Request: fold
Amino acid sequence: MRHRFECPLRWSDMDAFGHVNNVVFLRYLEEARIDFMFRLARKADSGAFTGGSVVARHEIDYRMPLTHRPEPVVVELWVTKLGFASATVGYEIKDERGVYVTARTVVVPYDLEQGRARRLTDEERTFLSRYLDDEATGAETV
Reply:
């Protein structure tokens, strides 16, 4: 199963070359991940990820340029690896024209009060495991 997030394009997302800037794609991934981990996960379990989480690693492959238009792009998100103290999330940013970006993010649950990483709770692991697809890796080499 994949989480599907529609992400609007903003005029300010474009760079001097007339396409969405490479850094902006990380923002799109973040918006989808926040919707997934903080809206959906908390809907499934009100205590999920309330302590926080941090990004330990990003990998991103740009497949084709994206130019501004009124229609949103779709960010599909799934879990490619689930550990005891981290999860790897795969993504595709796409539309009917094709895939613009494939990416991966390693997310670590974090205890904000203690200022350190923590293990995933059983509830968080249960939620994330519903989206586990270790066959679809995201950020594959072109």
